[in-house]
Design goal:
With 178 residues, the protein is of the alpha+beta class. The protein contains 2 helices and 9 strands. It has helices spanning 2-24, 149-177; strands at 30-36, 39-45, 50-51, 53-62, 73-79, 98-102, 108-115, 119-129, 132-143.
């Protein structure tokens, strides 16, 4: 009886953890479109919510005919407007240009941007296409990253499982000693 109960509890806990992982997983992301002199520029965020810390961003470039622009030089700067900084540490919010590298698809360029504070940010994208420098700005809202509920939930699940196994083992020892 004890082994069957433990097996059922373990399977139930694993099932719960798998479902919670699916529920807490980020969605496919968000795309913001701009048009600059006939060139379509898409900013693709890796999730629906941009959070403080490192975030993977993707820039996609398309010409007037909708064809991907390859071999573009893409630099991105994340800047927090001064009217949004309040009492924040200005040194942490200073922009630094990030060279985006060619992605997996044609016309796609990816890089990681670190947002030091929550609030409104401007993603300034400078790119060279057909020997012409162009620029597109995207306004995004960055949220506080908060705790990682998936890790916390997994840890709590393991602790509960250990407690259940300990209680069952203790009860089994009591019944076999009697």
């Amino acid at each position: 009886m004890g082994k069957k109960l433990i097996k059922n509890l373990v399977l139930g806990l694993l099932f719960t953890l798998i479902l919670s992982t699916t529920a807490l997983a980020d969605s496919g992301g968000t795309k913001i479109e701009k048009n600059v002199d006939g060139i379509k520029v898409d900013l693709v965020l890796s999730s629906d919510t941009v959070k403080t810390g490192d975030n993977e961003l993707t820039i996609r470039l398309y010409d007037e005919k909708g064809q991907p622009l390859e071999n573009a030089n893409v630099k991105v700067t994340a800047d927090m407007p001064s009217n949004n900084m309040g009492n924040m540490n200005m040194d942490n919010s200073k922009p630094g240009a990030i060279d985006f590298k060619a992605g997996q698809e044609k016309g796609e360029y990816t890089g990681n941007v670190n947002f030091s504070d929550k609030g409104n940010w401007t993603i300034k994208t400078d790119f060279t296409a057909a020997n012409q420098e162009k620029m597109a700005d995207f306004d995004i809202k960055v949220a506080d990253s908060g705790p990682n509920w998936l890790i916390i939930g997994g840890f709590l699940g393991v602790v509960v499982l250990i407690i259940i196994i300990a209680v069952i083992s203790k009860n089994k020892k009591k019944t076999s000693a009697a």
